[in-house]
């Protein structure tokens, strides 16, 4: 992690401020209250991050400023979100149209220029599938079908390793990868991924994938930990936040439903990057470190699993990223 991040004229000194823990579920008594994980390369990453997905540049600037003031130290952005215009970020992602090895250095240099940084702390491959290079974020033919690249993601990974060697990112990781795809990376890599960022919430606990990643010392980071609705048609479906058990735990602990769901992931030993729409939500979501869910609470939340997803991209393409993309 950067020792000093500069944001809106304020220096945030992070060295020695993060109490770390290995990738294990937190102690049930919360007596030590660690705030960061130690990755497999020795770096520290905070338990809790702030997601910028869906925020325009102006809102992203305002929300990130509030998040940093509250205490967030992990800011999650991506080329896809088109909001990499602020001064403080530590994580970004390689978008699908830049999977070809010769495009990767240009992609991260564009991100660094936009963020006014010399290096990133973490650079993720956003999806296993690559899209045809150049043009739209999701290129389509005249019939509306996505135009895929023929690049194998293992070649993309090997090119990303050179970014670490070149000092433009301290760590590299994966996003939306299943077990078989991770295995292909581990078979050829000289630098293993430090994280796998996936959709994860009580409707989609990712228990098998988590167990595999833990065995490989790859931290699971949860996006949409609140079961966020990614598409308008999902609004017809029940929200995780509104589930009776979540409401009951919210009443029991005198915390918001969002706080319950964030704390759930932290106690499982997962990182979490929730979104927040208001300053009050940003502050409330960060209040998850001095209280605990008990064993029965955790079991009840585990039992809500339906293998139900709110986020999907385009299924299909080469290298086994078709219908089985979301299987363990």
Automatic annotation (TrEMBL):
Source species, domain of life: Eukaryota
Active site positions, chain numbering: 81 (proton donor)
Record site feature (Lowers pKa of active site Tyr), residues: 93
NADP-dependent oxidoreductase domain: residues covered: 57-305
A single GO molecular function term of this UniProt record: oxidoreductase activity
InterPro entries tied to this protein: AKR, NAD(P)_OxRdtase_dom_sf, NADP_OxRdtase_dom
SUPFAM superfamilies reported for this sequence: NAD(P)-linked oxidoreductase
Pfam family, one: Aldo_ket_red
Residues that bind substrate: 126
The protein, known as: NADP-dependent oxidoreductase domain-containing protein
Organism: Glossina pallidipes
Lineage: Eukaryota, Metazoa, Ecdysozoa, Arthropoda, Hexapoda
